[in-house]
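Next up, sample data:
>
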Amino acid sequence: MGSEPPLFTISGNGKQVRNVLHADDILKLYLTCAAYAEAIAGQAFNIGGGMENSLSLIELFRLAPAHLDVRLAYETLPWRASDQKVFVADRSTIQAKLPWKPEVGAQQGIASTIEWIQHSCVGHENQRTQSLC
């Protein structure tokens, strides 16, 4: 593989689970909400990728090298007392009210986000993108 990034730290064992939601899906949701604004006015909803788009930090660390040509090296710190071991948003309420659900899966979303960042950095290394590039 290519160059190795510096060692980074994570809290806990890396098995913490989160759900991911791609920017394309959240944009579609915002547009759908605008179209149904009167029907959902004043309501609050949980938004996220759901169980089918959930992954642990370790799973994320296995996906990234395939797209970045790097080996991610990390060390662990003790668990943070306030850290949830699993957090997955329950989107059932919004899905009952709107014709929306995530379409971009976790693996596809991570791959396309990495591709977008790489494309955005080519010839555009400026102050705004410097931390990404």
